[in-house]
Amino acid sequence: MTIDFYYLPGSAPCRSVLLTAKALGLELNLKRTNLMAGEHMTPEFLAINPQHTIPTIDDNGFRLWESRAIITYLVNAHGKDDSLYPKDPKKRAIVDQRLYFDIGTLYQRFADYYYPLYFAGVPLDPAKLEKINEALKFLDTFLEGQTYAAGDSLTVADLALVASISTFDVVGYDLAPYKNVTRWFNKIKTTAPGYKEANEDGCIEFKQLVDSLTKK
């Protein structure tokens, strides 16, 4: 049986799950969930995820949400090997650190800066932009001398981070000052399996949503 995946293509966390599934060669039963129409608040969805968030998976009765928990679970449960999420404690710890950096710093600062404008029409806050710039400097430092985000091979850290970085890129944030980030970003575009379908197409959909909300 395939895994039910409740998602929206424009969502960066959802895209990280799609990228991981592609890297694993895993088939997902895609269940597009329209948040604007309240599909995440139906009794049926709340029975699956009482927190009513996406992405959410239902793997034959095993329900899980929070994208970074999902992507590590998918590798642990369905990966042919541990290359995307190494079992070695030190290597795994670096992957975990990058994932926590993504959720707690990088993507969080994107949301703090951009979402008030997109969803509430609140003017952009220059102080929050500086926090984004700081986060990008951190990531640029992490990537110094590194081919991938957590070492010399592709891991779920790259798949989570690229979903965030590509979202910065598509809304016009200038990545050029961050040479290591730019180099890494270009590499992931060409090495992550199914990148266009799993991530790039969703970025375009996110930009279309942003444009409609801000009436550009």
From TrEMBL:
Domain GST N-terminal span(s) in chain numbering: 1-82
InterPro entries named in the record: Glutathione-S-Trfase_C-like (IPR010987), Glutathione-S-Trfase_C_sf (IPR036282), Glutathione_S-Trfase (IPR040079), Glutathione_S-Trfase_N (IPR004045), GST_C (IPR004046), Thioredoxin-like_sf (IPR036249)
Biological process according to GO: glutathione metabolic process
GO function term, MF aspect, one: glutathione transferase activity
Domain GST C-terminal: 88-213
Pfam families associated with the record: GST_C (PF00043), GST_N (PF02798)
Subunit structure of this chain's protein: Homodimer.
Family, similarity comment: Belongs to the GST superfamily.
PANTHER family: GLUTATHIONE S TRANSFERASE D10, ISOFORM A-RELATED
Name listed for the protein in its UniProt record: Glutathione S-transferase
Organism for this UniProt entry: Ceutorhynchus assimilis (cabbage seed weevil)
